[in-house]
Amino acid sequence: MRIVVAMKQVPDTAEVRIDPERNTLVRDGVPSIMNPFDAYALEEGLRWKDALGGEVIALTMGPPQAEAILREAVSMGADQAVLLSDRAFAGADTWATSHTLAAAVAKLAPVDLVLTGKQAIDGDTAQTGPGMAATLDWPQLTFVGRVLGIEGGRIRVERYVEGGVETLDSSLPAVVTVLKDANTPRMPSLRGKMKARSLQVTVWTAADLGLPQSETGLEGSPTRVVRIATPESRSGGEIHRGSPEELAAILADILLGEGGGE
Amino acid sequence: MSARLEIRTDVCTGCGLCTSACPFGALSLVDGTASVSDACTLCGACESSCPFGAILIRRTGTVAEGISGYSGTMVIAESREGAIDHSTLELLGAARAIAEAEGGPVSALLITSVAGDGPKVLSEHGADVVVVVEDPALGHYLTEPRAAITRRIITERKPAIVLAAATTTGRDLMPRVAKLLNTGLTADCTSLSFDPGKGCLLQTRPAFGGNIMATIVCEGTRPQMATVRPRVMKALDPDPSRTAEIVRIAPEPGELVSRVRLEGFRVLDEGIADIAEASVIVSGGRGMKTPENFSLLSEIAGLLGGSVGASRAAVDSGWIPYPHQVGQTGKTVQPRTYLACGISGAVQHRVGMQSSDTIIAVNRDETAPIFQFCSEGFVGDLFEILPALAKEIRRRRGSA
After folding, report:
1. How does residue A28 score in pLDDT terms, banded at 50, 70 and 90?
2. B27 and B79 share a domain?
3. Are the beta carbons of B125 and B154 closer than 8 angstroms?
4. How does pLDDT run across A158-184, given as a tens digit for each residue?
5. Does A14 contact chain B (CB < 8 Å)?
6. Which residue in A25, A163, A239 is closest to B23 by CB distance?
7. Are B298 and B341 in contact (CB under 8 A)?
8. Does B31 reside within a domain?
9. What is the mean pLDDT of residues A19-36?
10. A207 shares contact with chain B (CB less than 8 Å)
């Protein structure tokens, strides 16, 4: 099995704060982390490598400092790391991002499986996985909560959808996007950490991928952000205290008044 | 280079507004003027934040090509066992509002094994044209056949705008179709409006866990595609006098081929809405203490016609399955009412529910962060308050 795990370095949005005075985003000192969903994708790749043999390649697109998450991936057990970094990639929307990642997967051929997180916690689009699958003309399995098996060139998964769980079976190669339920990511090993320290990260530019400027970064992006605003910040509302019966009566007023369905 | 960030140092006052506006921390003040680092993604947040016009993103080479000849708004319908999803009716409501400014027709694309009265329902809720692709092989959703058919119909009918619900189906289908059509797609929009001057759909969506709202346009390619968060747009009341033109199109044999096969479907929580689609969510956290106590929440949810949610702490403790998890590594929800019981309101939870219309918190600990941002807070023991609440709702219903 040759497995590529596509991952993204994101600001830890849990640490992002709104400045209440100016109503702007405070990002000072916010750490950059591996997108949490991608950690589940990586763990899934490592598990199937452990079971079936082969190798796991960690892949990301980003500025030079994004290699930090690739080293983290190697410390957990990834065998290779590829960073797609070029000023020409800046400003990419999900079309250009998935296009660029797909070009790298093609360059890494033969690849049996691409795993990635359901979505990144900064953009929350969930579009890059299907975009890669479309570009590669591979089947896609999204919102996967369990990988049940990989055998004979096929993969079986459980896909979590509204109201239920689908069991799907697909030919490989395929792109699979995973949820938190899939596994519990392992801790880095001592050996992995040593390997990560000495690892030479492969860096590819647009030219290495053979991509024209018109297909990458801002120029290759059909969409553009025209405005960023902070939503009205919520401030604490009324706080009620009293006996359980008193509180229940006020709660019932609110719940039945505002959509209790009477 | 196709684009670059330019800082006019002669105009920059060093006020620092842009440094806090940058979601990527790429701007800093150096010697009293703004300076940009490699972390810049050219997202444009700083450009609009600068009151002095000192920051410009120079764009070249973005050519509007092939956008003529596209008009109208197409809604991708979702149906389950012949019944049209409510999210689809909401999209039709949004599409009619867009059509007022855009001028083109509203169409609906229904791909299904059983059309039933679907075309009539779509018509009554605002579609001028209903395109029906009906085939026994198009029952349960599979990506490839839907994507192939949707792509062909869009290519043939040339809508300027295509909307789908931001359900797992819409968010699986639309990115594949948009990539194949080489056009833009905006995920999980919560507000849409049409700018007649530019002929562009203004697509607004939360990002960074709802901490910022980004407005996105797709200027140079068509159609402009968006997925729309369920329960945010309003469906129109059905108008039985509306009669849409029905266009029946057969799938081409090659379009029915799927490399993915459905082996089975297991229904969870029969008859109860998924939290992503629920209008009322009764949610429990660490304060619920045991899995059995979640029956208190199910009881209230049942009385209110709502669904049960949970914090990560409750899911990780094994008290309730993952599909119920709200928050950063779970689902983002936007119900009318979110009743948080025994949930402290850590930011990882907050980002998944802070867009709810009304947030009600019940917690023993009055210093819990959730009391800082809830609409109504109740300080007390949930094991006393919730049973009293259930009793009170029953009493009022009984006397009503």
Report:
1. low
2. no
3. no
4. 999 998 999 999 999 999 999 999 999
5. yes
6. A25
7. no
8. yes
9. 72
10. no
Residues 6+ apart with CB under 8 A from A55: A1, A2, A3, A49, A79, A80
Q: Are residues B243 and B288 in the same domain?
A: no
B229 close to B166: Cβ distance less than 8 angstroms? yes
Nearest CB to B184; choose among A93, A166, A242: A93
- pLDDT-based confidence at residue B61 (cuts at 50, 70, 90): very low
Last residue of a domain, one of B41, B61, B81: B61
Q: Which residues constitute the domain of residue B20?
A: 2-61
Specify the number of domains making up chain B.
3
Query: Is B260 inside any structural domain?
Result: no
Where residue B37 sits, what CATH number does that domain have?
3.30.70.20
Tell me if B178 and A140 make a contact (CB, 8 A cut-off): no
Residues B87 and B50 both lie in one domain: no
Angle at the Cα of B163 from the Cα atoms of B203 and B188, rounded to 5 degrees: 50
The answer on pLDDT for A25 being more than 80 is no
Residue B143 touches chain A, beta carbons under 8 Å = yes
* CATH number of A2-215, picked from 3.40.190.170, 3.40.50.1220, 3.40.50.2300, 3.40.50.620: 3.40.50.620
Strands B33-36 and B27-30: antiparallel
Set of chain A residues whose Cβ sits within 8 Å of the Cβ of B382: none
Pair (B21, B113) in one structural domain: no
Q: Which of A247, A256, A262 to mutate to test the interface with B (most CBs of B within 10 A)?
A: A247
Of A15, A162, A237, the CB nearest to B277: A162
Query: B378: which 2 tokens?
Result: 């109740």
Which residues in chain B have Cβ-Cβ distances shorter than 8 Å to A156? Answer: 263
How are beta strands A164-171 and A154-161 bridged, if at all? antiparallel
- Cβ of residue B295 closer than 8 Å to a chain A Cβ: no
For CATH 3.40.50.620, the residue range(s) in chain A are: 2-215
DSSP state letter for B345: -
Does any CB of chain A come closer than 8 Å to the CB of residue B392?
Answer: yes
Question: CB B385 to CB A168 under 8 A?
Answer: no
Q: Does B377 touch chain A (CB under 8 A)?
A: yes
Q: Do B17 and A24 touch (CB under 8 A)?
A: yes
Mean pLDDT (chain B) is 91
- Is residue B109 within 8 Å of B133, Cβ to Cβ? yes
CB pair distance less than 8 Å for A213 and B322? no
Do residues B17 and B154 both lie within one domain? Answer: no
Q: Are residues B380 and B341 in the same domain?
A: yes
Same domain as B22, residue B100: no
What number of residues does chain A have?
Answer: 262
Is B68 part of the contact surface with chain A (CB cutoff 8 Å)? no
Task: Return the H-helix or E-strand segment holding A148.
Answer: strand A140-151
Q: Output phi, psi for B46, to 5 deg.
A: -70, -35
pLDDT at B62 over 60: no
CATH number for position B299: 3.40.50.1220
Q: What pLDDT, on a 0 to 100 scale, did the predictor assign at position A259? A: 42
B332 assigned to some structural domain? yes
Predicted confidence (pLDDT) at residue A60 exceeds the cutoff of 50: yes
Q: Does B384 touch chain A (CB under 8 A)?
A: yes
Distance from CA of A170 to the nearest CA of B (A): 4
Is B130 within a domain? yes
* Distance of residue A191 Cα from the nearest chain B Cα, in angstroms: 29
B234 touches chain A (CB under 8 A): no
Q: Which helix (H) or strand (E) holds B79?
A: strand B79-80
> Residue B17 has what pLDDT?
87
| Residue B82 and residue B153 in one domain | yes
Query: Any CB–CB contact under 8 A between A91 and chain B?
Result: yes
Measured distance CA(B151)–CA(B67) in Å, rounded: 16
CB contact under 8 A, A142 and B358: no
